[in-house]
Amino acid sequence: MVVQDRAVEVRGPHGALRREFPMPDLEVEVTDGAVVVRRTADSKKARAAHGLVRMLIANMVQGVSQMFRETMALVGVGYRAQLQGNVLHLTLGYSHALRVEPPPGIHLEVEGANRITVTSADKEQLGAFVAYLKSLRPMSRYAYKDGRGKGVKKETEEVRFRQRRQTTG
Prior knowledge:
Elements: E1 2-4, E2 7-12, E3 15-20, E4 26-31, E5 34-39, H1 44-66, E6 68-75, E7 80-84, E8 87-91, E9 98-100, E10 106-111, E11 115-120, H2 123-136, E12 151-154
Antiparallel strand pairs: 1-2, 2-3, 4-5, 6-11, 6-12, 7-8, 8-9, 10-11
């Protein structure tokens, strides 16, 4: 780990991450192999930024050492994913297949036809890419005959379904 001016750079087996922290009321230093974030002022803004900067650095260290992973599920009849090279081809019920090319630092794996594993050392970049995938076909909030909705979701995400109105005739 290298700290220069207001920038922190972390290197590990899964790459290197660099981030600048332009907070004048915080100091970041490495002592005895541990990262220490200190406040030079006790303002409300400095106290709020202290925890944020500490957590961002912890996420950087964890990312370069063991990577972050998120598994996505495609739920729906005919929904499937294929990986061709580095390009993800998604069939999500549209008239055409969607091509998604991940940004640098994002690695994709397709398991079966409807599970996508996304890994990255940068937690923020991973979250943004997962949110983009979910936005391509958001989960339907209405359950169908099989009791499930359809769309793209995180595998651990639980979708709360709405009840359809019963009409009396």
